[in-house]
């Protein structure tokens, strides 16, 4: 006799408390949020005393808190409990990337935060299409906070200051195992990336690193990295590398 397949039962769980970031280290039982986070809580979410939220301050600790008071510019909270929650990769991954244009920069940051990248170094290259100016870097740092709130990371991905490739390429091998993602590089080893140790991967602009930039990398011991037969956009290549490193 045939029987109808029953669907697998789904486990239900209580809804997660909304997450907010404290720019100052959280110490003691009382915390005051101001700035953008307080504005979002008070004006956008219309938070009320007694509501529960989750706080993090970038140190790896997650705090459960209850709202005590709400004003137009500040929200006061009481810390109820705390725990260290590690959602990081087992190794430190740095991506040095020639930034794409416009909104694709935010997409890049969001995906790298979600995938556990520890550090992003915006690169200046000869074929680059976007300058890593001070204001651009600051926008990326704000995007890191928003992405961390969404995905549950309790440590912020570092956004370094913009760096010229000619200054970055001589980076010492002691900083990590170094790879150059470049489609025209010959003798590229197959992926995945090494299973252990800190890793640094450089990703060029849409037109790729030029011959002199590739030569400079190889002279300083960078290894070419093969990401497949297709030409990838900058943010796609970066996300692929991050995904490979998370295996």
In short:
With 247 residues, this protein is of the alpha/beta class. It is built from 6 helices and 12 strands. Helix 2 packs across helix 3 and helix 2 (104-114) packs parallel to helix 6.
Explain what the structure shows.
The protein has 247 residues and is α/β, with parallel strands linked by helices. The chain has 2 domains: 19-84, Ribosomal Protein L25, Chain P, CATH 2.40.240; 93-245, 3-Layer(aba) Sandwich (Alpha/beta knot). Helices cover 26% and strands 26% of the residues. The chain has helices spanning 35-44, 104-114, 134-151, 165-168, 211-219, 234-245; strands spanning 19-21, 30-34, 52-56, 61-70, 74-84, 93-98, 119-124, 158-159, 163-164, 177-181, 199-203, 223-225. Strands 6, 7, 8, 9, 10, 11 and 12 form a 7-stranded parallel beta sheet that branches. A 5-stranded mixed beta sheet has the order 1-3-4-5-2. Helix 2 runs parallel beside helix 6 (234-245). The model has no long low-confidence stretch (mean pLDDT 89).
Topology:
Layout: E1 19-21, E2 30-34, H1 35-44, E3 52-56, E4 61-70, E5 74-84, E6 93-98, H2 104-114, E7 119-124, H3 134-151, E8 158-159, E9 163-164, H4 165-168, E10 177-181, E11 199-203, H5 211-219, E12 223-225, H6 234-245
Parallel strand pairs: 1-3, 6-7, 6-11, 7-8, 7-9, 10-11, 10-12
Antiparallel strand pairs: 2-5, 3-4, 4-5
Helix pairs in contact: 2-3, 2-6
């Amino acid at each position: 006799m045939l029987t109808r397949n029953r669907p697998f039962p789904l486990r239900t769980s209580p809804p997660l408390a909304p997450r907010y970031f404290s720019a100052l280290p959280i110490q003691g039982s009382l915390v005051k949020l101001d700035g953008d986070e307080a504005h979002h809580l008070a004006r956008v979410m219309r938070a009320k005393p007694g509501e529960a939220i989750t706080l993090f301050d970038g140190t790896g600790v997650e705090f459960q808190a209850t709202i005590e008071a709400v004003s137009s510019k500040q929200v006061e909270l009481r810390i109820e409990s705390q725990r260290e929650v590690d959602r990081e990769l087992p190794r430190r991954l740095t991506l040095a990337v020639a930034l794409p244009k416009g909104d694709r920069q935010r997409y890049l940051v969001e995906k790298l935060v979600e995938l556990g990248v520890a550090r992003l170094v915006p690169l200046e290259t000869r074929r680059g299409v976007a300058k890593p100016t001070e204001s651009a870097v600051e926008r990326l740092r704000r995007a890191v906070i928003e992405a961390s709130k969404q995905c549950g990371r309790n440590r912020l991905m570092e956004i370094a200051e913009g760096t010229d490739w000619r200054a970055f390429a001589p980076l010492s091998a002691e900083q990590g195992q170094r790879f150059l993602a470049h489609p025209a590089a010959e003798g590229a080893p197959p992926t995945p990336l090494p299973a252990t140790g800190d890793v640094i991967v450089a990703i060029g602009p849409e037109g790729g690193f030029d011959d002199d930039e590739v030569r400079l990398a190889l002279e300083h011991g960078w290894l070419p990295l093969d990401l497949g037969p297709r030409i990838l956009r900058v943010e796609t290549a970066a996300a692929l590398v991050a995904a490979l490193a998370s295996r």
